[in-house]
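pinning this so it doesn't scroll away 📌
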Amino acid sequence: MKVSEIFYSLQGEGRHAGRAAIFVRFYDCNLACSFCDEPLHKSYYQEMEEAEVFQQIAQHPAKFVVITGGEPTLNDLRPFIAKLQDQGYYVAVETNGYQPTHIANADWVTYSPKNWKHIDFSSFFNEMKLIVHQKTDVEKLEEISRQLETPIFVQPQADQDRVVEENVQFCVNLIKKNPRFTLSLQLHKLLHIP
């Protein structure tokens, strides 16, 4: 397994924000987004045996694992997820939707599409997270919201680890006008925790 890092922290985004979580960050991504705030997945990884990954996960008391990247669905993670679940872990995955079948057995899926012209509206996910900034097309956001029943989180686009106040204000105003959306604030950045 190509793993960029395994670390223990709080989930900072979406429905599970504030929960203690063990993060497993997989290497590589099928996209190269200019606003990506996590460069490690493109620059570093360790080849790890599955047993080594489980050993590191077991060092922490939480039973909540977040699989992230990069783009974790570059790998077929179903066997890995099943083994985590067999050991009592609740498994959440964040994906850009590259290959949802590779995470079909996850307990929770956050879909964060980057190309809004090609959104998968099937039911493979539990929540959608959209990265927005002050010039985001509000009509497109509203169009997306009309096609979904699942929760939609809007997350202000950051500048690496810096919160961009204008983008936060844009999200606040958007949600006040359209309560269909929920704010995701990246608590880990606000609290300056890893």
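📌 and the second one:
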Amino acid sequence: MLTTADFLQYTQWSGIATLVFAALTVLAFILKWGLRFRLVGATGFMLVLTSGLFALSLVPLSRTVIPGAVRFTLVYDNGSTQAVITIPPQTTPSTLEATLRQAASNLYSYGRLGSRSENYMTIRARTLIHPEPGVSIPVYLGQVKRSLGNREDSEMTVEIYPEKFAQLPKPTV
């Protein structure tokens, strides 16, 4: 996986290429070359590319890995205070807790906005059961609430709904 140091090095090379394109563009206007306007576009593109690489060099791209967590899929996210993940129906309460903690860490972002009444984010975990062919029922197995203002939230609360696990199909041996 690429690190922030790698992106910083790519930013430097892209910055040099941007300066070369800018010099070529100025030269093209002075000498009235036919491709001078194309060079303006190429220089603009290089500037945007360099800015993006610089932004990636500032923000870490690491994901938290919590032992015991299962793979989840984000199915709903309002970009603010609510998200829903889906997990396999074979999940146990212990793996659900680890998965909720991992989701809370991975979905944290400084860009999430809380309302005046809610300064926390709620992530709910669900699975789908199929009691009969053609029928799917979502079952919410738990949720986690975490702070929107603090990345290392020590007051994160995880709620597991044990009565919902009784609705899940029993694994066949």
